[in-house]
Write a structure and sequence with these properties.
Elements (H helix, E strand, L loop, with lengths): L3 H8 L3 H6 L17 H10 L6 E6 L9 H7 L5 E7 L5 E9 L15 E4 L16 E9 L12 E2 L8 E6 L8 E3 L5 E6 L4 E5 L2 E3 L6 E2 L2 E2 L38 E8 L11 E3 L6 E3 L3 E2 L5 E2 L1 H4 L4 E3 L10 E3 L3 E2 L5 E2 L13 H10 L10 E6 L7 H8 L5 E6 L20 E6 L17 E3 L5 E7 L9 E6 L9 E3 L6 E3 L4 E4 L26 E2 L23 E7 L2 H8 L2
Antiparallel strand pairs: 1-14, 2-7, 2-14, 3-5, 3-6, 4-5, 7-9, 8-11, 9-10, 11-12, 12-13, 15-16, 17-18, 19-20, 21-22, 23-33, 24-25, 24-33, 25-27, 26-29, 27-28, 28-32, 30-31
Amino acid sequence: MLSNAALFAVLVLSAAGVAAAGAATGGDAFPESRLITPAQGALLNSWANSSNTWKLCYTTFTMDKTSPAVYHKNCDKYKPTVTVVHNTGGRPGRCKGVWNYQDQLDFPSPCSPIGSNCSDPVGGPGQTGDCPSGGHGYGQCAGQCSFDDSACPVAGPPCGPTNPGNFTFGGYADATWSGDRVSKGTPACFIFGLGPDEPVHYGQSSQWASTSDWPAWDQLWIGGTSQFNPTGAGGPPGTYGSCSGPHPLQCGGDGNWGETELEVWRPVCAADAHCGAHETCDAKDGSCVCAVGWSGPGCGTCDKSRFCSGRGSCVLPSPSNTPACHCDAGYSGADCSTFAGSPLFPETRIVSPEWGTALDGWMPAGIPAGQVWKLCYSSDTMDKTTAEFHKRCDQYNKTVSVAKNTLGFDTSGTEGRPDNMKGATFGGFADESWSASGCGPGSWGGGCYKGTSANFIFGLGIPGGKPDGSDGTFRYPAKRGATNHFQLAGNDYWPVWGTVSVPDLFMGYKGAPGGETAGCWANARGGRTYEPVSEKGEYPVPPPLCGSLSMGVWGETELEVWRMATAEELRAASGP
């Protein structure tokens, strides 16, 4: 790489040369630039540690420059960007006449001509004079510069410190320009000067994005209407520019830069090197977009249905666009597509062998150990309606319902979010049918309470249910002394355990399972019928068995309802 001095030797950046602008063609890195010479383009790429070819997203030479609106419209989605500015110089203020009064009260009303006087004798109400309202005593029209309130002799001409102009400078930003009044970027951002003196890399400078501003860094502000502008004026770039920090020679100083030209450059897709993790370069316009299967802020959310078959969560952060998976219970394989279900629940997509064994051990008297169950309803293969569920299951007296929710998230595995948002697996055992036949009309959708104290509800995969943070497995039997509200049967209800007003487990009303009314309030969280007991009895108050105390946050919910397989069905399944 050439040294700055060697590159400067071939820049030939004279005041006339840059002001003419037509001679600066940008070379291979910044083709057709009117501000950057080929040697400067190579230098900028070396400073940015880049081999990019760049393309204009904004230029004052051919686009509207009355405000930053067009610049933001054209450039906000790109990263990184290189901004190059050239000013012609000027003075930042205008001289104006302002009344000053004998009693030193400040009434800055305008006056003309500078040097003229007025009088307003001090006295009571009704006394008149030729000073403007609010003046007292003797007044004089004094010249004051609008930029810094310094004295000036004649109204109208420019005033304030002189910016000699002919400075070429700018900055590199590695984040987009979208956002309003927010500091962005990484320590790779920097500002620079290209002329008229030797080119200088001024070092790291944080990027500042605001919808009302032109490109800005914490030590370089090209213009706009944000709090950095003491005059409050907007307008074209350079109307009020600032680089007064440690590098005033970069732009010539604060104030009016005079006629200012601006070019903002974005990368052309040659590779994805300028894009972030899980991003790819869009060949249509060079912007960075999320790679397939990734979304959200910083493309940090992966689609578990794509990478983990919807049966696991992505392990993040991931160095690859194909992340590893943490599979749900019972699932295995690189993409969690292999499921070894419990032999007691054939064809299940939810119940693992471990969970099947737990359920078998919880069954009440009258159900033999090792009982095999048969699906009467599955939301995976049947209509997700209460009518379909009741049509297929109402004739059976003993059923096991198992649900798996997503806690409202269609994806799982977001950087910065713990993996306890993957949803929960839970359900209940009912020893009477779900039929509402004979219930008669009532205030609960034609439903009624049924069942006995042999009913129970359970959590098979309660996120963070154990003290070590692992998933918990709990049984919630009926409370001692409970005599009613063991299950609620109604044509418009999915399976419900407990009272309808404060249910221990409520799988939904109308709609799909897990809809807006779904929730769980077992034990101290409000439920009145069931209390938790873990498989070993050591965790008396586990987390909510459905994963959340809030109603209507289950998200996509799978439901399987099982009834006892008959002896004939078991013989047929075992073959001759």
